[in-house]
Automatic annotation (TrEMBL):
InterPro entries: Homeodomain-like_sf, Transposase_8. SUPFAM superfamilies: Homeodomain-like. This is Transposase. Pfam families: HTH_Tnp_1.
Amino acid sequence: MGRPSKYSDEFRCDAVALYRASEGRRTFAAVAKEIGVNHEILRNWVRAADAGPSSTGQALSADERAELARLRKAEREWQVEKEILRRAAAYFAREMK
């Protein structure tokens, strides 16, 4: 068995969320430097998060799968709304000039 990690699970989740929030505009190295970890550690955390709980042997219950589907749908809607607002802001910024 390996040594325990010096990073908490909450820190790892926050780091993965920070990387994902960059929506591909920032590299692993840039985000990792910002939070003070090695970029390969961050890459491993993101890959582990992408693999999901099934890779660790924990299956999702039916309620958890339903909630996950609901949350993913809500996130897609928020992304569309964000894109609409971004375009509207750009349009009105051009109009102001």
